[in-house]
Description:
Low-confidence stretches: none
Number of strands: 0
Helix content: over 70%
Radius of gyration: 19 Å
Structural class: mainly alpha
Mean pLDDT: 93
Strand content: under 5%
Order of helices and strands: HHHHHH
Amino acid sequence: MAWLFGYVDVTDSGFIAAVLSIAFNPLFWNVVARWEHKTRALSRVFGSPRAACYCLGAVILVLNCVRSHCFTEAMKSQPKLEGLNCCWAYYMGLAVLAVGTLFVITSFLALGFTGTFLGDYFGILKDAKVTSFPFSVLDNPMYWGSTAIYLGWSLMHASPAGLLLTAVVAISYTIAMLYEGPFTEEIYRQKQKEAKNK
């Protein structure tokens, strides 16, 4: 990975904007969702947990569009890697992007809108853990699918900056999973405990 730094100007303002948007998104949704779980403030403001969750989901979607735009602009402003600027790398990138898209779409279909956008933090809980595809093949397929999309996009554009930014995406999501996983498990543990006490 260190060799990529020779091809990337990490001081470029577009590259910095991409790194900041990548890091900001999971930080934002985790802070807001935990705050909501603790205070229920958004549910009160929007009149219901479902409306609040839909609003947060819409904000997350907009932030993801901004992140993708910054990522693409950072790639376009940096040089291409000649070794990747060929048909096989383009088609390999396209295949990785397609697999990532498959994971993201099927995750969304399995979880639904509120399951995808932190509904459990709003008290909108699933009856049981989702274990159907793609969760049957991969933990956190939404995050890894999104990472694969960025990796594929980077390969298609022969972009060392994109490859480096993809690593930032993977690191950001890994940190998010470390915070989200145990917290979500605790939410469902509390639900089971309450159900037993009834």
